[in-house]
Write a structure and sequence with these properties.
Strand content: 15-25%
Strand order of the largest sheet: 10-9-8-7-11-6-12-14-13
Number of strands: 18
Family: In the C-terminal section; belongs to the YbiA family.
Organism: Brassica campestris
Helix content: 25-40%
CATH topology of the largest domain: Dihydrofolate Reductase, subunit A
EC number: 1.1.1.193
Radius of gyration: 26 Å
Shape: globular
Mean pLDDT: 88
Distance between the termini: 58 Å
Keywords: Chloroplast, Glycosidase, Hydrolase, Multifunctional enzyme, NADP, Oxidoreductase, Plastid, Transit peptide
Low-confidence stretches: 1-11, 396-416
CATH architecture of the largest domain: 3-Layer(aba) Sandwich
Domain CMP/dCMP-type deaminase: 23-145
Length: 587
């Protein structure tokens, strides 16, 4: 039944049946949205996918969620859990499939399992993925209903909003070209974030501080200003003992920072200092000696810094800064959401700092109003949260991508002589060594299956070393749940215990990566086809900070990953040319 016929429905029985049907769909979509956040805090932020498969009788047959970048899709996990009950069932997805560009595992799983209907909460917000999976599922005869487009009602709109909120970081990143930024602060009832002396430990309760640790675990990075480093000497860790720990970022224009600070200890988690170009070169060298990364900007301001970390692939950033930097970030338009813990305390003080500094507003009518405000009591404190900027709507515009595709399937707005790739969900994301494509490679006297190219690459750092710790490290990497975790184990061990790394690693690492990439693209024909389709284009791994495998921030990187892919492409093209020549001679 269409949305129009529903609104004009004259039969109470038909209307009631439709409402019940919509209520069922909405319930399962909300469940898929809840599922999609199950790995929050355990892995670095990524697009959130959840899938619920329900039988015609309305019973849940299987569920799944994407654990991390480069792991098995939610849809495939749900199909495995549901088994034979998939046939004729309905799959509920909070978002259109597309956790890795160029990978069709999610759609293939639903098609091969015999799923009859798919309900999608929202289309994928990234342009190169948006609508592709929906078109593919429909081409296989699956009925696909997209909330807000194919089916509409109040209860479905509420469910669709849950889908928007659960992927707000991805949507804001796609629309604004900066990471989703959340400003968090704790203040007293009279609006102070510290006493006049600067002392601030502790304003909020232990329960509230635990919630802050959870917010950090959901973020790629935590940002503070130089004043916070000088006065509070924070650690900015998630302190949960497992899972994801965000990068620490310090913004300081003058680098007037102490030589001793908790943030300069990078043994467990990295720190990045963003500063004005040319600031205190001697201090920059000091930070580099500590393992702290320094990034210079021509104009140090929140907008420039956020655009840089957008290029670095960050989805979500938590701002835990003082009032001056908070005001600058708000004025720059990079803060999307505010979370405030209000403690039932009064500290007073005309010079005591407040959460937000000068914004230049002189009348109350100029005040910024929060959207979708929520209130929650956390122990003795009150948690108030809301959006400064609404989550962008993803309803299609005219002409939509589907309409354009139907008019001219050859239209491709992404053609370029230089092709960049980085995160798996980016355009050409399957080129990434983090993509979810298992490979079978020689190991010892036989072969082993590795969950990704990154798993194999990291493990090879320790292969052949006669030390039980090295053997343990290889096994931990092999069984890591995601490429992200495999990389963390490998990099940490290499940094902390360099004696475990094989002595010839620097000489063989390029060959190791090349053989793994060759296995991957030879194993998956659609990936090989995608690689060959880029003939004539330069391939660049767009990491702005990895100057060996990536292209760097301004093209200063060696781009070895891009080079190896172009070398592999050339090898494949050569084989095709020889094959064509032999065929011609045979004729």
């Amino acid at each position: 039944m269409t949305a129009l016929s529903f609104r004009l429905c004259s039969s109470p029985l038909i209307c009631r049946a439709t409402l019940d049907h919509h209520a069922t769909d909405a319930s399962f979509i909300r469940r898929a949205a809840d599922l999609s956040e199950m790995s929050a805090g355990l892995t670095s932020p990524h697009p959130n996918f959840g899938c619920v498969i329900a039988t015609p009788s309305g019973k849940v047959a299987g569920e799944g969620y994407l654990y991390a970048q480069g792991t098995k899709p939610a849809e495939a996990l749900a199909v495995e859990a549901a088994g034979e009950f998939c046939r004729g069932s309905t799959a509920y997805l909070n978002m259109e499939p597309g956790d890795c560009h160029g990978d069709h595992t999610a759609v293939s799983a639903l098609v091969q399992a015999g799923v009859g209907r798919v309900v999608v909460g929202i289309r994928h917000p990234l342009q190169h993925l948006r609508g592709a999976a929906i078109r593919e599922m429909r081409s296989h005869g699956i009925e696909v209903n997209v909330l807000g487009e194919d089916v509409q009602s109040k209860v479905l709109e509420d469910a669709r909003k849950c889908c928007l909120l659960v992927n707000a970081p991805l949507i804001h990143r796609a629309c604004s070209r900066v990471p989703f930024s959340l400003l968090k602060y704790a203040m007293t009832l009279d609006g102070k974030i510290a006493a006049s002396s600067g002392h601030a430990a502790w304003i909020s309760s232990k329960l509230s501080r635990t919630r802050v640790f959870e917010l950090r675990g959901r973020s790629d990075a935590v940002i503070v200003g130089g004043n916070t480093v000088r006065q509070d000497d924070p650690r900015l860790t998630a302190r949960h003992g497992q899972g994801h720990t965000p990068t620490r970022i310090v913004m300081s224009q003058s680098l007037d920072l102490p030589e001793k600070a908790n943030l300069w200890d990078v043994s467990e988690v990295s720190t990045i200092v963003a500063t004005q170009r040319g600031a205190r070169k001697s201090y920059q060298k000091f930070l580099a000696s500590k393992g702290v990364e320094v990034v210079e900007f021509d104009m140090l301001n929140p907008r420039e810094v956020m655009e840089y970390f957008h290029l670095r692939g960050y989805l979500s950033i938590l701002w835990e800064c003082g009032g001056t930097l908070a005001a600058s970030a708000i004025a720059s338009g990079v803060i999307h959401k505010v979370v405030a813990f209000i403690a039932p305390k009064i500290i007073g003080g005309s010079k005591a700092p407040t959460p937000v500094g000068e914004l230049g507003m002189v009348e109350m009518t100029q005040a910024l109003n929060l959207i979708d405000v929520c209130y929650e009591q956390v122990g003795p404190d009150m948690l108030v949260s809301g959006f400064l900027q609404p989550v962008p709507d993803l309803l299609p515009v005219i002409p939509s991508e589907d309409a354009t595709f139907e008019i001219d399937p050859s239209v491709n707005p992404f053609e370029s002589s230089i092709i960049f790739f980085y995160k798996t969900w980016d355009l050409y994301g399957s080129f990434s060594n983090f993509s979810p494509h298992p490979i079978r490679m020689p190991y010892g006297d036989g072969y082993r299956t590795w969950s990704s190219v990154e798993h194999y690459y990291q493990a090879n750092k320790f292969v052949g070393v006669e030390n039980p710790l090295a053997h343990d490290c290889v096994e931990k990497i092999r069984t890591a749940k995601s490429p992200e975790e495999a990389a963390f184990i490998g990099r940490s061990k290499q940094r902390q215990q360099p004696e475990l790394v094989r002595s010839d690693w620097e000489d063989v690492k390029i060959e190791v990566m090349y053989m793994a990439l060759k296995c991957k693209f030879s194993t998956y024909p659609h990936l090989k086809k995608m690689l060959l389709s880029t003939a004539g284009s330069v391939l660049v791994e767009a990491s702005p900070h990895d100057l060996f495998w990536g292209g760097g921030r301004e093209g200063e990187g060696l781009n070895y990953l891009g080079r190896l892919l172009m070398q592999l492409r050339s090898e494949y093209l050569g084989e095709s040319s020889v094959s064509a020549e032999n065929t011609s001679l045979a004729l």
